Amino acid sequence: MTTNTFVAGSGWLYRFDPRAKLLLMVLLCIWFFLPVTLLGLILVVLLIILVGTLNTGRKASFKTFMSILPMLCIMVLFTPFNVRDGKAILQVGSFVVITEEGLLQATRLAWRFIGITYVCTLLFATTVMNEVILSLRWYRLPYKGALVITLAFTYIPFIAESFSQISDSHRLREFDEKQRKKLFDRVKDLLPTLTSVLVAALRSIPNLAMSLELRGFGLEGKRTNYHTLSAYRHSFTHFFLSCMIIVVLYYIARVR
Amino acid sequence: MQENKNALKVAVVAVLTAVVVVFTLVVRIPTAKGYLNLCDVAIVFIAFTFGPWSAFIAAALGTALADLISGYAQWAPISFVVHGLEGFLVALIVKQRADVLVSWPRKICAGLVCVATVSLGYFALSVLFISTVSVAAAEIPGNIIQSGVGFVLGMAVSVAVKRAYPPVRSLAW
Predict the structure, then answer these.
(1) Is A91 exposed, middle or buried (0-12, 13-18, 19+ CB in 10 A)?
(2) Do the chains contact at B11 and A203, CB–CB below 8 Å?
(3) Cβ-defined contact of B71 to A217 (cutoff 8 Å)
(4) Which residue of B has its CA nearest to A148?
(5) How far is A201 from chain B (nearest CA, A)?
(6) Searching chain A, which residue's CA lies closest to the CA of residue B73?
(7) Residue of B15, B17, B160 with shortest CB distance to A195
(8) Interface residue B161 vs chain A (CB under 8 A)
(9) Sequence-ordered list of residues with C-beta below 8 angstroms from that of A14, at least 6 positions apart, any chain
(10) CB contact under 8 A, A191 and B157
(11) Using 50, 70 and 90 to split pLDDT, how confident is the model at A69?
């Protein structure tokens, strides 16, 4: 099981300070809800997709789009029929099927959704998870919180592997004719597997707690700590750029 | 002694968070409209076994991390709030002294709260931040099925785990 969303690359986005990148992601997500023109919104989203494609490659960019395609289809198909205001575009007798307002709303929602998706995905595609956690630490995430996330990432592959082994061994005990089961039976058959996986995971807790104690967890003088992100230079410039990008984009695309 | 307790708390929450991530990502049962995952099974199990705070943190963090890992980062904040609340409320309803069994009316109430929190929570937050009323409403039946099945399985798993591994009671805080 892969717990890493990082796409290897060397574009300028990879060299951007992760703390500033995190700030930029939040600000851009807020920007999408500001009163901006539809054309401005579309152009900004296209710009984000272009930046993403240049940095992470066409494959990663296409994969992101494919992951939201079903949701986009539902959005585009459903939204126009639920808005009754505005000028009618398609009318059957006296019943208004699609209005101009409905189409505009669907278009805005779809582009906003694409924008938010690409912005969020880009952060995690161009920043290793370790640096995301260090950035969160810089934004005052408590030590315990950071430790929980780090430890969880360490245990995910271990529990996933246990899951796969245990479900394989349970499957080996089944008869061939039972292989074509109904959904209810398949769900019911999951119970022993889930129980075994949980017991295997829970058994690791006392050992983990003991190892944390031995490492002096909770003591005043910590024996372990997190690195800092001092290797990134020009942090101030990156923070300044992040804020300026938002201000400039809003100034250009705002509704006048 | 306090340090020991803190180390145990961190260990419990970290492993439970990993369990929620794995249950969300590993098992996906295909349905006509998409797929069902088992995150609610893990959340309900944690709520029944470990109490409100463990359930809140593990459910919120676990589902948000699962969204980040699987490339649905835009859903992470919504999952964080909805599933965190789900775990917290279910655990609050079923919380009682260790030697007393949870009564059926309480279990039913917890089940209803679980289903309502997930379906209405996703609906409300999706309408606010991502889509429209009609699109968000289309997701409600799937969320009801997933959380309902998850609640029943989670309850069953909780009983089975307590039988199979009795020391689990000493890990709760």
Answers:
(1) exposed
(2) no
(3) no
(4) B14
(5) 7
(6) A120
(7) B160
(8) yes
(9) A55, A126, A127
(10) yes
(11) confident
> Are B18 and A201 inside 8 Å of each other by CB?
yes
To the nearest 10°, report the CA torsion of B76, B173, B48, A188: 70
Q: Are B26 and A156 an interchain contact pair (Cβ–Cβ within 8 Å)?
A: no
CA distance A7 to B125: 30
Neighbours of A93 (CB within 10 A): 5
Touching A: B residues 3-62, CB under 8 Å: 3-4, 6-8, 10-15, 17-19, 21-23, 25-27, 29, 34, 38, 41, 45, 57, 61-62
**Complex ipTM:** 0.91
Of B36, B77, B48, nearest to B161 by C-alpha is B48
> What pLDDT score was predicted for residue B33?
47
Q: Which helix (H) or strand (E) holds A89?
A: strand A88-92
B27-43: per-residue pLDDT in tens? 776 554 456 689 999 99
| Positive/negative CA dihedral, A118, A106, A40, A43 | positive
Cross-chain Cβ contact A117/B73 below 8 Å: yes
A220 pLDDT tier (thresholds 50, 70, 90): low
The continuous run of DSSP H or E covering A202 comes out as: helix A183-214
- Output the 3-class SS for B54-107: HHHHHHHHHHHHHHHHCCCHHHHHHHHHHHHHHHHHHHHHHCCCCCCCCCHHHH
Distance CA B4, CA A218 (A): 8
Angle between helices B39-50 and B52-69 (to 10 degrees): 160
- Backbone phi, then psi, for B132, in 5-degree steps? -110, 175
Note whether A218 contacts B2, CB cutoff 8 Å: yes
CA–CA separation, A184 and B36 (whole Å): 13
Structure tokens at B162: 């307590």
